[in-house]
Every structure is written in C-alpha cells, then in structure tokens.
Amino acid sequence: MTTSSNAALTRIQNFLHCATPDAWIETAKLPANQALLLLDHANCEKKAASTAINLMYRYVGDFEMMHKMSRLAREELRHYEQVMQLMQKRGIAYDQITPCRYAGELRKPVRTHEPARFVDTLIVGAIIEARSCERFAKLAPHLDEELQTFYLSLLKSESRHYEDYLHLAKKVAGDEDISERVNVFLAVEKNLIESADTEFRFHSGVLN
User: Fold this and answer.
1) Which residue in 20, 56, 75, 206 is a FRET match for 29, CA 20 to 30 A apart?
2) What pLDDT was estimated at residue 173?
3) Residue 106 resides in a domain
4) Does residue 2 carry a pLDDT above 70?
5) What is the residue range of 198's domain?
6) Model confidence pLDDT, tens digit, residues 15-61
7) Phi (first) and psi of residue 152, to 5 degrees
8) How many domains does the chain have?
9) Predicted local distance difference test score (pLDDT) of residue 192
C-alpha cells in the first residue's frame, strides 16, 4: 500500500470501535466461502451505487453532495463490474442470496425527521464504507494473489467514500455536533461485527 493509503487506513481503524474479528477472517479464508464472498461483494457494490443515486434524487440542491454521490456511484458500479468479471473468470454463478442483517440493523437508529434523517443516513454510509475498507485490508493478505491485488486496489476509493460521507454529514448538520450520533451508530456496528451471526457475508458478524 502507498503511504497515503496507509494513513487513510489508520484513520479508519481509529474511527471504528473494533477491528474485524480473526474468527471472521478464518471463515472467509475457507475455499468454500470464496465464491460466496465475491457474490455478496458484488451485491454490496450494487447497493452502494443505488444508495448514492437515491440520495441524489432525495436531496436535490446541494451541488457538492450531488457531485460526490455521482462520482461515488460511478466508482461503485465500476467495482461491481470488476467483481462480476472475477466471478465469470472463476466460474462463479450469480445466484440470488439474502443480505445479512448488517445494513438493516445499522439503519434502525436513523431519525425520521429532516435534516436529522439526512445526517444519520450519511453517517451510516460513512461507517459502511469504513468497515468495507478495514475488511479489505485485513482480509487481503489471506487471499490468492489476484484477489489480494484487487482488494488492495479498492482501499483508496473506499477510504475517500468514508471521508466524503462523514464530511457531508458534518456539513448538513451545520452547527450541530454529530459526534454523539456517530458514536450511537458505531456502538451498534461494533455489536453487529463482534456478535454471532447465522450466515457468512461480507459484512456479517462471527459465524455461529
């Protein structure tokens, strides 16, 4: 990794309330889970692009936000295409799978009135991007050379996505200090990452 990537990763590791458990890494390393990991990764990239586009439609008027979300959506769709190429190359079928509980549970504390809803949604986006970046970096050394190279190549954009979401959350909040809200969501996220889960996914907890 480059010096700037290392610095960005350190900021993310300091931001999150926990590291990915070693038990999750051990599960992800199993050959039987490699195809599932790529399949769920593809779905995550597709969902990330969709989220960015939805924000552009819902909150029209902030040019900085719309520009950042437009760029983010393009990058996520490019990542989606790259994951699909890897799947095709490896003979992995694009089957329908259920999402894990992570994103749904993480969004439960989102407030329902504006602009609080917008602020919280942006905070959630920042946390998801931060966890993705942290997980790519921690998992990469345990994968084959092709996947390792690919996952490490995503760190720069994923870390920028985290920073963009957090910057926009602070901007929308104005004079409101968002640190308390950030900690609310980070506490929920920590529990999701460290607790037992019933199915293995890219953002799942430790497999029960």
Assistant:
1) 75
2) 96
3) yes
4) no
5) 3-11+21-207
6) 999 999 999 999 999 988 989 999 999 999 999 999 999 999 999 98
7) -70, -30
8) 1
9) 97
- The DSSP annotation for the chain comes to --HHHHHHHHHHHHHSSSPPPHHHHHHHHSHHHHHHHHHHHHHHHHHHHHHHHHHHHHSTT-HHHHHHHHHHHHHHHHHHHHHHHHHHHTT---------SHHHHHTTT--SSTTHHHHHHHHHHHHHHHHHHHHHHHHGGGS-HHHHHHHHHTHHHHHHHHHHHHHHHHHHHTTS--HHHHHHHHHHHHHHHHSEESS--TT--EE-
Please identify which residue in the block is written with the tokens 């920042």: 126
Measure CA 115 to chain center. 23
Residue listed under structure tokens 């430790």: 206
CA–CA distance, 29 with 147 (Å, rounded to integer) = 12
Residue 26 lies in a domain: yes
Contacts of 38 (CB under 8 A, 6+ apart): 83, 86, 87, 90, 92
Tell me, what's the pLDDT at 208?
Answer: 83
pTM to 2 decimal places: 0.95
74 domain residue, yes or no: yes
Token pair belonging to 138: 């921690």
Question: Can you give the CATH number for the domain in which 104 is found?
Answer: 1.20.1260.10
